[in-house]
Each structure stands twice: as structure tokens, then as C-alpha cells.
């Protein structure tokens, strides 16, 4: 790996200059693509444009989707560069414009970048290569079959003569692109870029502190804004001392924002909140804006959710659990009869709290109005819905809004919402100046869309042979209207359904006024803890090795169920066996007193993961995780091994951090935590080694931003049980739960 | 009021209120945005700079208290022999995920290695525990510090 800086500045103005200057003498290769994954979009799509080859040989590849640390600004262009056949060192990467008509859906979420683009973007590169070959064949008056490529060159096979891509770029204008569906792709054994560890493209900027992130943006004449919202989600401003704020040196404006009456649920296609009510202070520096804000003395109007609390939710969940579930989502066999006839039964209540995303870069956005048009620079994971939200809220036409995707300091699902974007746009219009809105850490933690809390009331039974024969779950979950609140649902196919003859899933909704939404591995980040811990309980009740118990539970079929809910039981058995071998599971009985190993496995985001944690628990209840082993099956090809390993290790430690430390509690309708002092994140002294093995299986590659996280939590709680005999049934884990 | 600061060996002037934290003077007034805002209460380390070689949280330093002290930021680390080694190790091991905390991590690591050229794991924990990495790249942060110090990485 080399240390170099060839990345261009991140501003929109500079990007246009680059395109214009290259475009004047080079050629942008464009083609309509037909990826199977979203054929409906493709019918509407005009030519795509990803690759530019300049006459001097400089290759520019556009990165389609926003990078928030998951590495797609590097990984997606690698796919194109591989099939284009250029040296990675010769590639310059730039962010694509937000333009779904050209590029299809551009977002960072669901670990979807790999499965959506593995085929499509390789074909983009292969089409470009075929065009360059055709241009050379025409010049040499030979057939394209007489030509091949070496990185950056077309080679005439019979004579060995060569032309650089740069010298052929202009001639490509008269070449008809081949059909991307049938263009030949490389054999994996010939890969030069894919499968080789590539450092993140923006590494040089990151380690030298160059402007890169949303919060680093700057516009001529820009002012700085802060926006205070009610601690009770959605409460309106009753009064605010705007004059006191304006009296602070440097403050240019202070005003009340009524907000969108539908801000709590801003509509289809939107995640998180819209424009909530609050007070904006705009100043010539952010510090002056903050000082102004401190003088506002805002009084908030009464709000119906001001009485709600975490203690109240827990009590209500218990009350609901005493009755029948409001909805039954699954009822296989006869659970009650099977439980009656079971050799052993277990009954347990599990609970997990609200969680905040806590991106280290607080939410922020820079917005500028010029001639009725809005331009925003946003560290968003989801630019197009942001544009639509701004259009709807501000009464603008979407085509009059440009969203520049800039790097986000962490995503984790928080930046799938665009509340910060619509706030910045509104404030910039009111202030009649370009504005950079920066949330305080406290704003960020108290105005999130939280991972929903949830409560599960489980029963399970095993027969005399130790087979899991019955399982029921009554799930009490936050709701909005009829359905579950965002990210608070559970599939009727949730494992171990379909592997146990008698299964009943019931749901009771609990209305609440806390905004919820996706956090890394939504749903799975909580359900893996619940079900994998409960299965571990049942294994112990049956007197069996928990890993062997899960292998037996997974049966002998390779696939159970139909797409899209098919479950690759064979793939899961593969990772379970592998993690058992890696971790020395069979020898865990030799661990000293107070130490233990636990296993968890989970399928999410198309990836199969099994993990073993080794913990030591001291008599005062302190948990030290000594090591985690991960066996992963995400298909036949790891595209960027450097990024892949980093994602898996980070996901595992993120999961441990959630389980060991994190919770948002609600009191008087508001989040009680406000900063890293009361919402602690894992620090380096707690971070254990994480050993990772990727099993290569004959499936298309899938994503790695999320699926390693869910099983880390039950691996930890099951290891704690092995070490102490104490079962963790609610998160976060506290020393009090585990004191000897 | 105008303050003249010694930042990365240059005299830079900033006309701001004396209570303005150094963090915001660096970012908003001097346009040195490598130093990051994370928490505002010295709990995350994203704003770490060196004041006369000592790692400090710039969100807690009013500009009026800086005086003639030498301020070094991430933008100055390429000119610091230890900082340069740390940056190279960070690059070679591809430490970053989102990268937002890494300026602060590199500042803390550089201060550690300047004082303790071959740190033990315990010394790494002690020096780096004030720096949160939300992406939890800690395995690589530790390895990069070992590499920059010429020690075995695992």
C-alpha cells in the first residue's frame, strides 16, 4: 500500500471544473445498464456515466453512493476499474452527483452496495473496455478478437503492438457500446484489483486533516447556525427571547421555526423526522451562535407525550404480556400442547433499550440559496429523499435543488434521515445567506430516531432427546398507528421459525411518542440477542453443547423457505462449524473459573455469521471480553479485504459496546442522556482482538456493513452465562447483574 | 479582540472573543478544519491538539489562555518526524473507517510516541483511552501505533 494524495477537493464547484476540463479533450464513457436487481428503474434510465478517460491516460471513476465509513467510495470504483483493466494507482475517484435518473438509487444502507452493484458495475467497466478495444481494432483494421488489454493499454495480440487508453478515448465517440448483459467479464483468477487489499481512497486526506466531511464545508459569505428543539419530541415553542440572543456579538439573526406539522412522520420514502419546531440562531461564528442560543430562555408548549417514561413503557409491556397478543403473526403446530408434553420448558422475559446512533460527527449541513435555487452539502446516507423532503417542506421544485454528497463521519443509519438537511435549508432561506448548521452533541443525542426498545416474553420446550420442539414469543413493540414503529417490526419467519415444529409469534403494539428508526442491522441488532440467548437457555436446559444444539436445530437441508425469506441452513451450519474450530470451542471446559465461551449465529443482510466470545467476569461483575472469533459467509469473493476485515471487526466491537454500555432512557417525555459522559461508547482499553475467517462459497458476494454485529451480542451474553451461570436477559449489561 | 497564535510554527491572528474555545478558532476563523468537534466536553478526543507538545482537548481551551504556547494540529503533523511516521502507519494499515476521529487519534498517538517511543499495551490504553472511535477501529489503531514504534503488531 502506498501513501499518496491524488484525490480532488470535495466541493461541487471544483468537481464541475474537473469534469469540464477533462471533458473538453477526453471522453466520458456512458451506457445504459440493465442490472437485474432493479430492472424497473432501468427502463426509465437514460445513459449512465461513470468512467472518463482523458487523452493523457488519466482515468476518473465516479463513486455512485455516499461514503460514511463503509468504504464504498473505494469499493464500488474498484469493480469498474477491475473490468476496465486499469492500474488502481492510475484511477482518480470522485463522488457522482445525486442523480437517480442516471445512476439509479444512490444511498448507503442495508449493506446493499455489494449485492446491488457487484454485477452491474463490473459490467460498466467491461463495456468501457470493450469500447476501447473496438476503437483500437478499427484503428488497426483488425477484428476486436485480435485484441486484448493490459492495464491502461489495448494490445494487438498477433504483433504485440500497444495503444494507451488515453490515445483511444476520443475515437470511442464513434463506437457503439456493446450490450452490458452479454459483455464478457474476467475470470476471478485474473483479478488485479478485486480481492486485493486497497486502502480507502480518502485516507491521505483523513490522516492529514484536509477538508473532507460535511462539517468541513465552507461557502463564501457563509454564516453559522444552531437550532434548538424541544426536549419533548415535537413540542412547539411557546416563547423565546430572540432579542437577547440577537444582542450577542456576532449574532445576525434569531427566529422561531414553526416546523412541519407532519414532521414526526414526514411521509412515504422518508426515514426519521422532517422539520421539527424550534429556534434558530445564526451568527458569524458557530461559537457566537451557541452563545446566542444560551440566552434564548425558550419556553416549550405542553405536549401529549411529556408524561411518558422508560419505566412506564416497561410496566405497560408487562401488562400487555399478561394478555393475548393483539396480532398473531405465526402459529405452526400446537405450541401449548407441545409445551405441556415437553421434557423441559423455559420461560423468560427479554428486554432491550432505545439506542442512539451517536455518529462522532454531529449532524450538520451547509445550505445556500441563489436565484431561487437551493444547493446543499450534506453528509447524508440518503440524498434523494433529502431533496424531496426539502422540496416538499420549503415548497420548491425538486429540480431546483442540488444535493452534494459529502463524506459523513459515521452513518449507522442515522443519516438515512435528512432532518438536518431540511433544517439547514429552511434556516438559510430565512437568514438570506449561506449557512452551515451544526448540531451540538446534546442536540444529536436528544433528537435521534432511536433504535426502538422492545420486550419479548418467551416460552420454549425441549423433548427427552433434547430437541427443540416448541417456542412462543409475545413481542411488545413500539407502534405508530396500526403497524410497528419504524424498525420495530419482526418477520414472521424470524429464526428459529421453520426449524421448530410448534412456533407461535404474537405482537402487541405499544403507542409511544419517541422517534424510532434504523440503527446498523435494524431489527437484527435486538432480535439476535433475544432469540440466540433464548436458544442458548434451551440448550442448557436440554443439557447440551449450545453449538451442537444449534447445528442440530439447523437440520440437514441446505435451504429452508422460499426467496425472499429463504434461509441458507447449510451456509449457517458451515460458519458454525468453522467458528467452533477457530475458537477451540471443544476445549472451553479447560478455561479457568470465571471465564467462559458463548456462541451466537445470525443471518441478516444476506450474510451468514457465527461468532464465539471468550469472556472473563470478575467477582464484582466487571466483564472483560478477551477475544471474539468470527466465521462469515458472504459468498465467493471479498472485494476489498482491507475494508471487509475492518467492517467486521468494527461491527463486532460496536455490538459489544451496545451490549455493555449503551441505553437511552426516557423521562418526562425526553431522552435523559446527552453526551458521551452518560452515553458511553467502547474505548480502546476494552477492545479485544477479533479474529475473522471468510468462508468462500459459491454465492454472489454480499455486504459487510451490518451482518457481523447481531451475533456478537448473544455470543457475549452466552459467554457470560458460561462464565458465571447468570443469564443476561436485559441490556445493557451492568456489573450489578453479574456480582458473585 | 485580536489574538496572535503560534499554530504549526506560523503566527496566525484571530479576532474573536477571548472565551472562544481554541477548537472553534482553528476551525471557523483559521480554516484549519482537521481538528474535529465531537462532544464539546472533553469526552471524545476528536479535538485533540498539542499545546507545547502536550495532547490537549481544544474544545476546553479558551483562546485567551493560549498565549505564546506552540499549538500543533493535524495539519502540522507531516512536518513532525514522529507524526509523519504515525500518519504513514495509519495509511499502511488502512486504520480509518469513517475517519472522523482519526485526526484526534493521530495527535494522541504522536504525543504518546514522542514521550514513549516503545509503548506497552497498557501505555497505549492509557494514552489513547480519551479518544473515542465510534467505528471501533481500535484493533488497527493499536496495530498502527505498534508499527509506528517499530514493534511487533500483535
UniProtKB/TrEMBL annotation, chain A:
This is Xanthine dehydrogenase family protein molybdopterin-binding subunit. Residues 208-304 form the Aldehyde oxidase/xanthine dehydrogenase a/b hammerhead domain. GO terms for molecular function: oxidoreductase activity. It comes from Phenylobacterium kunshanense. Coiled coil: none annotated. PROSITE patterns: TAT. InterPro entries: Ald_Oxase/Xan_DH_a/b, Ald_Oxase/Xan_DH_a/b_sf, AldOxase/xan_DH_MoCoBD1, AldOxase/xan_DH_MoCoBD2, AldOxase/xan_DH_Mopterin-bd_sf, N-heterocyclic_Hydroxylase, OxRdtase_Mopterin-bd_su_IorB, TAT_signal. Gene3D superfamilies: Aldehyde oxidase/xanthine dehydrogenase, a/b hammerhead, Aldehyde oxidase/xanthine dehydrogenase, molybdopterin binding domain.
Automatic annotation (TrEMBL), chain B:
Gene3D superfamilies: 3.10.20.30, [2Fe-2S]-binding domain (1.10.150.120). Pfam families: Fer2 (PF00111), Fer2_2 (PF01799). Residues 1-77 form the 2Fe-2S ferredoxin-type domain. Keywords: 2Fe-2S, Iron, Iron-sulfur, Metal-binding, Oxidoreductase. One of its GO terms (molecular function) is oxidoreductase activity. Transmembrane segments: none annotated. PANTHER family: BLR6218 PROTEIN (PTHR44379:SF2), OXIDOREDUCTASE WITH IRON-SULFUR SUBUNIT (PTHR44379). This is (2Fe-2S)-binding protein.
Amino acid at each position: 500500500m502506498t501513501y499518496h494524495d491524488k484525490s480532488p477537493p470535495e466541493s461541487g464547484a471544483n468537481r464541475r471544473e474537473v469534469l469540464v476540463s477533462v471533458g473538453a479533450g477526453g471522453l466520458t464513457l456512458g451506457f445504459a445498464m440493465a442490472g437485474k436487481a432493479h430492472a424497473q428503474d432501468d427502463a426509465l434510465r437514460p445513459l449512465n456515466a461513470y468512467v472518463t478517460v482523458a487523452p493523457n491516460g488519466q482515468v476518473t471513476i465516479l463513486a455512485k453512493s455516499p461514503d460514511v465509513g463503509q468504504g464504498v467510495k473505494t469499493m464500488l470504483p474498484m469493480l469498474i476499474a477491475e473490468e476496465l483493466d486499469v492500474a488502481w494507482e492510475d484511477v482518480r475517484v470522485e463522488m457522482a452527483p445525486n442523480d437517480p435518473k442516471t445512476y439509479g438509487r444512490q444511498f448507503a444502507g442495508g449493506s446493499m452496495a455489494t449485492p446491488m452493484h457487484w454485477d452491474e458495475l463490473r459490467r460498466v467497466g467491461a463495456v468501457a473496455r470493450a469500447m476501447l478495444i473496438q476503437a483500437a481494432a478499427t484503428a488497426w483494421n483488425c477484428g476486436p478478437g485480435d485484441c486484448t488489454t493490459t492495464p491502461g493499454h489495448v494490445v494487438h495480440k498477433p504483433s504485440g503492438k500497444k495503444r494507451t487508453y488515453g490515445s483511444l478515448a476520443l475515437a470511442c465517440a464513434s463506437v457503439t457500446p456493446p450490450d452490458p448483459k452479454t459483455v464478457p467479464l474476467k475470470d476471478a483468477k485474473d483479478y488485479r484489483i478485486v480481492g486485493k487489499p486497497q486502502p480507502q481512497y480518502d485516507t491521505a486526506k483523513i490522516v492529514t486533516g484536509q477538508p473532507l466531511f460535511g462539517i468541513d464545508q465552507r461557502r463564501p459569505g457563509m454564516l453559522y447556525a444552531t437550532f434548538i428543539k424541544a426536549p419533548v419530541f415535537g413540542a412547539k415553542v411557546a416563547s423565546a427571547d430572540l432579542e437577547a440572543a440577537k444582542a450577542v456579538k456576532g449574532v445576525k439573526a434569531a427566529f422561531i421555526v414553526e416546523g412541519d406539522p407532519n414532521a414526526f412522520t414526514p411521509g412515504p420514502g422518508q426515514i426519521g423526522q422532517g422539520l421539527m419546531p424550534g429556534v434558530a440562531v445564526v451568527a458569524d461564528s458557530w461559537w457566537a451562535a451557541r452563545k446566542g442560543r444560551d440566552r434564548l430562555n425558550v419556553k416549550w408548549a405542553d405536549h401529549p407525550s411529556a408524561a411518558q417514561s422508560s419505566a412506564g413503557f416497561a410496566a405497560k409491556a408487562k401488562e400487555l404480556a399478561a394478555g393475548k397478543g393483539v396480532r398473531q403473526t405465526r402459529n405452526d403446530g400446537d405450541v401449548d400442547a407441545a409445551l405441556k408434553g415437553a421434557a423441559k420448558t423455559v420461560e423468560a422475559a427479554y428486554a432491550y433499550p432505545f439506542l442512539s446512533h451517536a455518529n462522532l460527527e454531529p449532524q450538520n449541513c451547509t445550505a445556500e440559496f441563489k436565484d431561487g435555487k437551493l444547493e446543499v452539502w450534506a453528509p447524508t446516507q440518503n440524498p434523494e429523499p433529502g431533496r424531496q423532503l426539502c422540496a416538499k417542506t420549503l415548497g420548491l421544485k425538486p429540480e431546483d435543488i442540488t444535493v452534494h454528497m459529502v463524506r459523513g463521519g459515521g452513518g449507522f443509519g442515522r443519516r438515512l434521515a435528512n432532518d438536518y438537511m431540511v433544517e439547514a435549508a429552511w434556516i438559510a432561506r430565512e437568514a438570506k445567506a449561506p449557512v452551515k448548521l451544526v448540531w451540538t452533541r446534546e442536540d444529536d443525542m436528544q433528537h435521534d430516531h432511536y433504535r426502538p426498545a422492545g420486550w419479548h416474553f418467551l416460552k420454549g420446550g425441549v423433548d427427552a432427546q433434547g430437541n427443540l420442539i416448541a417456542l412462543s414469543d409475545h413481542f411488545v413493540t413500539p407502534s405508530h398507528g396500526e403497524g410497528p414503529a419504524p424498525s420495530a417490526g419482526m418477520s414472521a419467519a424470524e429464526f428459529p421459525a421453520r426449524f421448530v415444529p410448534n412456533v407461535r409469534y404474537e405482537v402487541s403494539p405499544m403507542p409511544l411518542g419517541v422517534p424510532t428508526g434504523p440503527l446498523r442491522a435494524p431489527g437484527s441488532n435486538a432480535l439476535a440477542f433475544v432469540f440466540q440467548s433464548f436458544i442458548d437457555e434451551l440448550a442448557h436446559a436440554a443439557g447440551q453443547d449450545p453449538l451442537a444444539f444449534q447445528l442440530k436445530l439447523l437440520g440437514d437441508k441446505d435451504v429452508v423457505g422460499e426467496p425472499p425469506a429463504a434461509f441458507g441452513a447449510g451456509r449457517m451450519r458451515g460458519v458454525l462449524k468453522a467458528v467452533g474450530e477457530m475458537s477451540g470451542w471443544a476445549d472451553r471446559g479447560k478455561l479457568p473459573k470465571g471465564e467462559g465461551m458463548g456462541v451466537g449465529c445470525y443471518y441478516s443482510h444476506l450474510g451468514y455469521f457465527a461468532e464465539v466470545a471468550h469472556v472473563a467476569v470478575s467477582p464484582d461483575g466487571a466483564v472483560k471480553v478477551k477475544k471474539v472469533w468470527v466465521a462469515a459467509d458472504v459468498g465467493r469473493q471479498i472485494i476489498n479485504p482491507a475494508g471487509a476485515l475492518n467492517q467486521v471487526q468494527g461491527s463486532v466491537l460496536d455490538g459489544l459496546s451496545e451490549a455493555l454500555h449503551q441505553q437511552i432512557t426516557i423521562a418526562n417525555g425526553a431522552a435523559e442522556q446527552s453526551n458521551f459522559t452518560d452515553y458511553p461508547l467502547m474505548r480502546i482499553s476494552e477492545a479485544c482482538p477479533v479474529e475473522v475467517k471468510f468462508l468462500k462459497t459459491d454465492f454472489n458476494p454480499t455486504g459487510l456493513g451490518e451482518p457481523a454485529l447481531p451475533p456478537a451480542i448473544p455470543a457475549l451474553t452466552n459467554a457470560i452465562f458460561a462464565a458465571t451461570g447468570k443469564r443476561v436477559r436485559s441490556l445493557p449489561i451492568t456489573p450489578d447483574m453479574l456480582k458473585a | 479582540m485580536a489574538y496572535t497564535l503560534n499554530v504549526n510554527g506560523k503566527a496566525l491572528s484571530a479576532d474573536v472573543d477571548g472565551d472562544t474555545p481554541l477548537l472553534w478558532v482553528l476551525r471557523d476563523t483559521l480554516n484549519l478544519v482537521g481538528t474535529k468537534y465531537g462532544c464539546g466536553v472533553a469526552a471524545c478526543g476528536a479535538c485533540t491538539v498539542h499545546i507545547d507538545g502536550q495532547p490537549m482537548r481544544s474544545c476546553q481551551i479558551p483562546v485567551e489562555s493560549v498565549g505564546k504556547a506552540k499549538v500543533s494540529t493535524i495539519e502540522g503533523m507531516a512536518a513532525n518526524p514522529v507524526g509523519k511516521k504515525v500518519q504513514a502507519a495509519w495509511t499502511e494499515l488502512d486504520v480509518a473507517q469513517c475517519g472522523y476521529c482519526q485526526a484526534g487519534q493521530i495527535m494522541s498517538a504522536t504525543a504518546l510516541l514522542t514521550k514513549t517511543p516503545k509503548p506497552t499495551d497498557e501505555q497505549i490504553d492509557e494514552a489513547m483511552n480519551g479518544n473515542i472511535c465510534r467505528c471501533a477501529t481500535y484493533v488497527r489503531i493499536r496495530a498502527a501505533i505498534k508499527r509506528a514504534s517499530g514493534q511487533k503488531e500483535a
